[in-house]
Amino acid sequence: MEISLTKEQYRTLIEMVYMGEWMINATRVKTIKKFEEMEQHIASFAKTAGLEDLIEFDAESKTYYPTKGFEESIDRFKDEYDNETFWEELVARLGQRDLEREFGGKLEKMSREEVFKLRYDIEEVYQKEFSGRGIERVEVVRATGRH
Fold it and tell me: In a designed cystine with 10, which of 5, 17, 33, 99 is the match (CB 3.0 to 4.6 A)?
C-alpha cells in the first residue's frame, strides 16, 4: 500500500502520530510497542520529506526523536488536552462520588435517565464552581488526630 502526502500533510501526520503515541504510552511503565514502532516508521521519512526540523535520528540508538523545537510546538496541544481532561475528570468523579453518597442503593432502582439527570445536576454545580474559581476552594478534610 502506498499513501501520497504533501509536505504539509506529512507534517500534520507526524504531529498526530507523535501525540497519539504520547497519549497511549506516556504514563505506562511498559509501553505498547506497536505504537512506538509506528511512530518510528512515520518519523523515518522526515529527512526525505525535508522535515529535519521536526525529527532527528540518533545513530547510536538507531532511534528517531522529535527535535526540541518540534516538542515545544506540540506542548500547547498536550497542555490543552491535559487541562481539559483534568477538569472533566474532576467534575465527573466528584459527581459520581456525590451521587453514590446521596442515593446509594436507590440508584439501582432508578432509570438511566433519572440517574443521568441527577448526576448532570450534581456535575453542573462543580462545573460552575471550577469555571469560576478553579481549585481555590477545594480542600481535603483530614481525620482528627492524623497527620
Answer: 5
Domain ranges of the chain: 7-66, 79-133
Task: Determine the length of the chain.
Answer: 147
- 68-96 burial code (b ≥16 CB/10 A, e <16): eebeeebeeeeeeeeeeeebeeebeebbe
- Measured CA to CA, the distance from residue 57 to residue 27 in angstroms comes to 24
Q: pTM for this structure?
A: 0.76
What would the pLDDT profile of 31-66 be if each residue is shown by its tens digit? 999 999 999 999 999 999 999 999 999 999 999 999
CB 52 within 8 A of CB 46: yes
Confidence at residue 146, expressed as pLDDT on a 0 to 100 scale: 60
**Which residue do the cell numbers 512515520 mark?**
42
Task: Tell me the C-alpha distance between 55 and 42, whole Å.
Answer: 10
